[in-house]
Amino acid sequence: MNTRQKDVRLIEPKPQSLNRPLDGLEKMLEEYMQRRGPTEPPVSGRLSIFGSLLALVVMLFASFNTHAQLPDPGMQIVPGRTAVLITDPQNDFLSPGGVTWGVVGKSVTENNTVENIETLMKVAKSAGMPVFISPHYYYPTDHGWQFEGALEKLMHNIGMFDRKGALSLEGFEGSGADWLERYKPLINDGETIVSNPHKVYGPETNDMVLQLRKRGIDKVILGGMSANLCTESHMRELMEQGFEVAVVSDATAAAQVAEGDGYQAALVNFRFIANTVWTTEEARQAISQVQ
Questions:
Q1: Widest Cα–Cα separation across the chain
Q2: Which of 187, 191, 280, 289 is most buried as measured by Cβ atoms within 10 A of its Cβ?
Q3: pLDDT, tens only, 39-54
């Protein structure tokens, strides 16, 4: 599956002159020939002129299609200024025993998301690149909110990311809010920076931007869960805050429900908004080249 979405195109209005049918072009040619009067060339010459005009139109159409293609600004990895950021690498999203597996499991499996997130963290650490984690937790007091969005309400109803309290680890080990087991050696190594939890989707409600700024980071390689929710929201806010962002499209996944495919929705916005969209292999190569 090609997740680079290089075929996404903007629809731009074409100049009126290029929207005229070919018979309009013939009429223009006839008018031109009449104005020429006695110097009118033979029929073969007129056909030659028409052919040249038609070729010009084709070239102009090709030119407009080229300009309609979204650019790929790219992102250059600079040691000391670049970091990997993973959102919600937790059991409720990424484990078959998690409360959302029924709707995200297919996307996670198809993208090889679990393994790709692990690869991103490993290659970053091998290159001496810092890794940041933006977790998602809910405490008992969060269930006292008086209103919620659709997914917030669902997450609260199913006990997603629930913890006993902000200062309590009771029942945390192996819970839906805990890290996926295979990630623990990478996250709990004393080097990975774990921010405060975000409470809805984006980093506006935690200290992730502060943590990045304090370490001189202005370029972010982004992966994690869920593509059209927390991952996309982090991408948007980081872009608004002046960071460069490369989203790793197969190091994320999303719910597929009757109302739509969250992963496909996210891919369009990644392509439209981020500086670039990479696969895990492209990210691995880019990171390895600057070691």
A1: 98
A2: 280
A3: 555 555 555 665 666 6
Query: How does residue 2 score in pLDDT terms, banded at 50, 70 and 90?
Result: very low
Backbone dihedral angles phi then psi of residue 165, each to the nearest 5 degrees: 175, 165
| Residue 155: partners with Cβ closer than 8 Å, 6 or more residues away | 138, 161
pTM of the model: 0.78
CA distance 69 to 237: 25
B/e letters for 204-218, b = 16+ CB within 10 Å, e = fewer, are bebbbbebbeeeebb
* Residue 2, domain member (yes or no): no
The predicted pLDDT at position 13 comes to: 38
pLDDT bin (cut points 50, 70, 90) of residue 20 is very low
Phi-psi region of 216 (alpha: psi -120 to 50; beta: other; left: phi over 0): left
Identify the CATH number of the domain in which residue 115 sits.
Answer: 3.40.50.850
Give the span between the Cα atoms of 107 and 262, in whole angstroms.
9
Task: Count structural domains, the chain.
Answer: 2
In a domain? residue 11: no
Question: Are 158 and 105 in the same domain?
Answer: yes
Task: Give the list of residues 6+ apart from residue 208 with CB closer than 8 angstroms, or none.
Answer: 85, 132, 134, 195, 196, 198, 234
Measured distance CA(31)–CA(51) in Å, rounded: 16
Burial class (CB in 10 A: 0-12, 13-18, 19+), 52: exposed
Q: What residues form DSSP beta bridges with 179?
A: 90
Indicate if 120 and 264 belong to the same structural domain: yes
Share of residues in the chain with pLDDT > 70 (%): 76
In terms of domains, do 148 and 22 share one?
Answer: no
| DSSP count for the chain of H helices, then E strands | 11, 8
List the domain range (segments joined by +) for residue 90: 82-288
